[in-house]
Design brief:
Length: 322
């Protein structure tokens, strides 16, 4: 039976429309397969944000189908909460904060179960600074002294409490001052504190500022105390601050570091975990162009300070490969 020309045109247009919808539907399916990776970092003036941005770039370059972007945030605690809520796929965080989250202690009321380790990036070192003419030679000399221990409730303040405990020193034994990095450095220069404490990648700008005006001494942590700390708190790693790090600074100083680490959730599949980790560790030179702290990113330390967290299997496989 022959169809009228008008009806044939209507049917042909309808078929074309159906095919277009079908193609569009296939396109939507393809879009869904695109692997969006939002990376929570920190403030735009800090270390995490530029390094996170560089990580996003190498992922986009080297990981098939990945669409990664760095996001400025309130840093470690906020990042953990964003991972827990599924707002981001990965985050840069301090490993001590991650330890508290995994175990449901300190600032976390309950265990956060969906976190997965990706890689340890670089150390953020505890630096306990005094002036050379203070007469303070070791941490055993802190009793009765005015000590800037970090802002109240901060990561550095938690670090200092733990280190003092290893020396059987409490806040009852010192005159603790809850001051930020910059405030502590200024107080040290002004002579209103005897010691200032910082946890950060070295060289740290606030300490460089003091060293440019005053001769400083960085107090060592004794080896037996480092051993005890790494046993009691598995997020610590032994670190040596090299001579020449600061103006007029001579000699190597043993200390401990927490690590800046990359964390994902259990939603990341093992292949993506492998590919992302490989992209990071084969492009360290590009990451270091974003921030000098990234120069310390090494595959051989890719699992440092991460013994407490369940790893993404793909990431762990890459880090353990020769």
């Amino acid at each position: 039976m022959k169809l009228p020309k008008v009806l044939k045109r209507v049917l042909t247009a309808g078929l074309a429309l159906a095919m277009a919808v079908g193609v569009a539907g296939c396109g939507t399916g393809s879009d869904k397969s695109e692997n969006f990776i939002n990376i929570a970092t920190g403030g735009t003036a800090g270390t995490y944000y530029p390094i996170g941005g560089a990580i996003a770039e190498v992922i986009n370059k080297d990981v098939n189908g990945a669409n990664a972007a760095a996001q400025s945030t309130g840093a470690s605690v906020a990042n953990i909460n964003m991972l827990a809520d599924g707002q981001v796929e990965m985050a840069i965080v301090q490993n001590d904060i991650t330890y508290y989250a995994v175990n449901g202690t300190d600032m976390f009321d309950k265990k956060i179960e969906n976190l997965r380790g990706m890689a340890s990036l670089y150390p953020e070192t505890v630096q306990i600074v005094t002036l050379s003419d203070s007469g303070i030679m070791s941490l055993n000399d802190l009793k009765g002294k005015r000590v800037a221990v970090g802002a109240a409730g901060s990561g550095v303040e938690a670090n200092i409490r733990q280190i003092l405990k290893a020396y059987n020193i409490t806040y009852d034994d010192i005159d603790e001052q809850f001051l930020s990095f910059a405030e502590g450095a200024n107080a040290l220069k002004d002579g209103t504190v005897d010691v200032a404490c910082v946890t950060a990648g070295y060289p740290t700008a606030s300490i460089q500022d003091v060293a440019s005006q005053k001769k400083i001494r960085i107090l060592p942590i004794d080896e037996d105390k480092i051993t005890a700390l790494t046993i009691d708190y598995p997020f610590y790693t032994r670190t040596v601050i090299p001579g020449g790090t600061y103006q007029g600074f001579e000699g190597e100083i043993p200390s401990v570091s927490v690590m800046a680490i990359l964390v994902a959730t259990d939603k990341m599949d093992d292949k993506t975990g492998y590919d992302v980790t490989k992209a990071i560790f084969t492009n360290v030179d590009k990451l270091a162009q974003a921030h000098m702290a990234a120069k310390n990113i090494q595959k051989k330390t890719g699992l440092a300070g991460m013994g407490f967290i369940k790893m993404n299997s793909g990431a762990e496989k890459f880090l353990k490969e020769q």
